[in-house]
Amino acid sequence: QVQLVESGGGLVQAGGSLTLSCAASGRTFSSAYVMGWFRQAPGKEREFVAAIRWSGGSTKYADSVKGRFTISRDNAKNTVYLQMNSLKPEDTAVYYCAAGPVFTSTPRPYDYWGQGTQVTVSS
Description:
Helix content: under 10%
Radius of gyration: 13 Å
Strand content: over 45%
Shape: globular
Distance between the termini: 40 Å
Structural class: mainly beta
């Protein structure tokens, strides 16, 4: 059984920073696996934020966060991070960590999901 556990969410003022963590346990992902971050604001669909390959570290970002957010991973700790800088009120959402076999911004191919962590950015 795979578990993804997010942490690091909270309340921050606009312009501030937060770092989210996603710890994976229960199995060792193959090097081909991909870790992604998605977010969902109230009344909106879940949207892609960023993704990274376990092997090689290739990354991709949503245009809305490019230049402000950085995704990284620590393979030894089975943990993925999302460093969020210059936060805006529109970044307010529940942030979810996900794992899957396809390097994509589409939620469907991701097999495993965390429970989510709330990020609230005040203006």
